[in-house]
């Protein structure tokens, strides 16, 4: 299945750091997200985009995972030549990941 079947996402950025929150629609799917969506899997999935460290924070109370991805926006909004320099599409791309 694709992540979009059990979760939605929100994104943010700060400089050259992209932040993606992955939030389960149902609390009972949160354990599956924790098991299947690891920093290592995201590093592999976004290998062409994320060149730095990925840190995962677990927010049990709302069934969410928060990923902080360093060196992910081509230098940041004021320096990047990318069309999506804020990284907003990374959340949508993550939801297409097969688990």
From TrEMBL:
<feature type="domain" description="AtuA-like ferredoxin-fold">
    <location>
        <begin position="1"/>
        <end position="99"/>
    </location>
</feature>
<dbReference type="Pfam" id="PF23544">
    <property type="entry name" value="AtuA_ferredoxin"/>
</dbReference>
<protein>
    <recommendedName>
        <fullName>AtuA-like ferredoxin-fold domain-containing protein</fullName>
    </recommendedName>
</protein>
<dbReference type="InterPro" id="IPR056362">
    <property type="entry name" value="AtuA-like_ferredoxin_dom"/>
</dbReference>
